[in-house]
Amino acid sequence: MFTFLRTRLCFVLLVSLSVAGLAAVRIGTSWVRDIPPHGEGLVPAAVLIAVAASCALLLITGVLIARKKGSSVLPEAGRLWSIILLSALCAISCSMLPRYEMSALPLLILLNAGAFCLLWAISRTFSLLFWWIFVSLELAQIAGYTQYGSRINSLVIAETIEASQEEISGYLSTINLVIALSSLLGAAILCWLLAWVMKHCKDRLPLLNAGFFFMLLAGLLGLAIPSSQRHARHFWPYFEAYSLIHACTEAVFHNQATIRQVEGLHSPTEQPSSLHTLHGGEGVVVIVHIGESVRADRMSINGYERDTTPWLRQCPRLINFPRCVSAACDTCQAQIAILTDARRDIYEKDPALRPHTGSVLDLFAAHGFRVFAFFGKRNATHLKYDLVVRLLTRCAEQKIHAPGSPWTSVPQMADILRSLPKKQNTIFFINNEGSHTPFYHYNHENPPFHPAGTSFETPSSHAEEVNNAYDSTVHYTDEFVRRVTSLFHGRPWLYLYISDHGEYLGHDGIWGRAALGESGRSYLSTTGCYVGAFILSSPELEALHPHFASSLRALQRHANMLIAQEHFFHTLLGFFDLRTPWYNPALDLTAPSPQSYTGPHPEGEDGQEAAH
Ligand SMILES: [Zn+2]
Questions:
Q1: How far away, in angstroms, is 309 Cα from ligand 1 center?
Q2: Rounded to whole angstroms, how far apart are CA atoms 437 and 454?
Q3: Ligand 1 is a single-atom ion; what residues have CB below 5 A from it?
């Protein structure tokens, strides 16, 4: 009779367990979807009740099975204490929480002990691989947070995917190498201790029971925390492991989504188009320069007190756009917004604001311009991330990489120019390292602003050096533009410059673009979204056609408008009177009355709505 009852009880328990498990998975997945990745989200009581109920049922089942088998219900007391001590060590050294909220420690210890037992019971020594990677990342993350103010988030991973060898070498300092090695060693020591504690646990059942017991206690303890303070970050290491995986998948997803968007675009040349100002043989040179990480407010042409743009400042023909908003804090998305008819970033929901056609450069190539693309030393080479700019410059007959700093591309441009017939209409597309971290490209022998430090370690405590290095890169770009334009002396030329996104050097309380995610602010609500943008031209171009002269006058009239990267596709078409169904006069700054930018920006009412 007792055996029968026990069997019936087991059956009922298993059915309830399945129902509870399904409910937990259902609630858990919706929770994971709703929760922001930086851990500020609150954990609903329903999730904890489901977890505690499931663990209680599993524990009861485990105890009954152990008694039936005549084996021990739990590991011996000494081992349990060792597991708890090791969990305490792990939680204190690897989670950032005990440094700020000691009260969370008991919960962390119980959750960690549960994870130790369950993972070891399921996968034995394979679980060490998880702990080694996880603990290494956590230790490195604490050091990274102290140094750079940023945790490992999707932007950091996306930046790492994008990083060139120079950028990576900028971070490979002795201290960072020591931190990385220490993290790996610390994680290895913890794994060795875990293996030592678990080495005699041959039977899985007592360990599973112990795991469910710890999780049950953690669930109950979690319920005791007031609901308004039950933050996801208190549920370390589970939430943290989820955050790291989420950051990786988001970076990869984001990367794929950006590439997919540009791959799906048809060339604008598939529609009929006509060019009304040039017939070929005028020798016009159009330079389209996408800059890197240049904030508008760090250029002296925009009132910055340091003279970072001395040459531009004295250019009588400069048409400067001091209020230009960039579409995204991301190189590729900005390239799409500049070169195609996209008006916002890749996450834009309004179909009207998404891109509908490919690169504007294709249209010029179709009307007799020969296109040459000049890249930095490494960008647009082999990285998958660079595929976007490679696709957008598909019409370039040659892609040329600077052998050293961006200045070294100037003789290459001169060579190309010499090799072409003088009357050939040409486009030079430029996209080099500019002012990208680690702010390396400036004249190191004679830096205009010194002492300049290119190391980005604890930038806030090296604020002066980092700012000097950044300003020196802007100064370098000013000289780069001077050198490039000097190549076209006597010819009709137009130079369009626009930076991809800004940078943070303590602006808006943020140090480095990767720390933007930590700030909890959207890119378009910060001053980092205003980027350098200007147009230069030669008198020869103005004299070539009355349309060019009137376009230049219109540009000058509209220079102080609030504009955005969305204007450049249509402005380039409008300037040359290149007619295509893709052209929108409302976004053409050479048109009589263009529309200003109406999207989110720091001064706008909807500036806070641009979070992704
Ligand atoms: Zn960039």
A1: 20
A2: 8
A3: 292, 331, 500
**Ligand 1 midpoint to CA 331 (Å):** 4
Cis status, amide bond into 539, omega within 30 of 0? no
For residue 287, the cross-strand partners are 428, 495
Q: Classify residue 330: in a domain, yes or no.
A: yes
- What pLDDT shows up at residue 150? 74
Domain boundary among 253, 269, 291: 253
Q: Give the pair of three-digit tokens for residue 154.
A: 């999707």
Residues 229 and 319 in one domain: no
Sign of dihedral through CA atoms 555, 288, 329, 533? negative
180: exposed, middle or buried (Cβ count in 10 Å: 0-12, 13-18, 19+): middle
Instruction: Tell me, yes or no, whether 245 and 315 share the same domain.
Output: no
Q: What is the pLDDT of residue 6?
A: 53
Neighbour-count burial for 420-436, b at 16+ CB within 10 Å, e otherwise:
eeeebbbbbbbbbbbbb
d(CA 184, CA 140): 9
Distance 32 CA to ligand 1 centre (A): 31
CATH of the domain at 417: 3.40.720.10
Residue entry with tokens 């320069």: 289
Question: In which domain, by residue range, is 124 found?
Answer: 2-253
Residues 307 and 224 in one domain: no
**Mean pLDDT (10-residue bins), the chain, 612 residues:** 50 56 55 55 89 94 92 91 95 86 89 95 93 92 79 77 71 85 95 93 90 94 88 88 86 86 95 96 97 97 97 97 96 95 92 96 98 83 74 94 90 96 97 88 89 75 89 97 97 98 92 82 94 98 97 98 98 98 97 95 60 37
CA of 436 to the centre of ligand 1 (A): 7
Ligand 1 centre to CA of 255 (Å) is 14
